[in-house]
Structure formats: structure tokens, C-alpha cells
Amino acid sequence: xxxxxxxxxxLILLILSLSINAQQASSLFVNYEGTGYTGSGxxxxxxxxxxxxxxxxxxxxxxxxxxxxxxxxxxxxxSMSCGVTGSNINxxxxxxxxxxxxxxxxxxxxxxxxxxxxxxxxxxLNIGDVITVAVSKNFDxxxxxxxxxxxxxxxxx
Length: 157
Known about the structure:
It is a single chain. The chain is 19% helix and 44% strand. The chain is of the alpha+beta class. Strand 5 and strand 6 (67-69) form a beta hairpin.
């Protein structure tokens, strides 16, 4: 009888441990915001000037000169927007470009961007990865426009 009881208690503890680990993995998000762009021409980097970390413990994410440095490895749901919505997405031929360590790892063109203007995807990121986000349009858009948001939401290890 004690073996069955011990096995049952061990199983309960294992389930609780897995549940706690899953909650910890999804409890981290980092929100970046800014206005405008840097660069010239049809593709420009997003200006990001503020960082908000939502977590049960502090992380080492940094924002320096519009460059994000990842502070915790894991699988992330990444959202980005620049304030362009609705029919303006197609009219401006909007395209998002997401770079990790200077390599483009994701892009989304206007025909696939939802009317909300928010692009979302999942990506495994490692501690120390360097992230930049760029926007392309079909005209040389002003550097002082655009309400930029990038959100990194850790959804797994």
C-alpha cells in the first residue's frame, strides 16, 4: 500500500513541478517602444527608446542605440508594429524585417500583414543575441514618423 501511495505522491509532485516550470517560462515579456526611424531610403531601422520588462524576477535585457540584447534564452512569441494599419499597409507596401546578430531571420510583406498592422512569429532566442527591427515602404518615409512597438514574450525554454 505504501508503494502505491509513494508512487502517487511522486506523480503529483512531478505534475506540480512541470506546471510551475511552464508558468515560469511564460511569465517573461519585454516591451519596447519608440517613435521614428534611423537611416535613409526605402528601408529604415525602428527607433526604440523605452524598455519595460515584465517578469517575476529581473532579467538582463538591454536596449542601447535601438539595439535589443536578449537577457534570457528561450522560445519567444515576437510581435512588432509601426503604427501603419488598414489600407495603408498595402498602399505603402509595408514590410517588416527582423534581424538577429545582423542576419535577417524573419520578414513579412504587406500582403500577409493583418489589418491591425501587427506582425507575429515565434523564434528561439539565446542570451546575448542582438536584435534590430527594420521597416520597408515604397517611398522614402520621414524619420520622425511611426509609433513603433516590439514585444518579446517568452513562451518556452
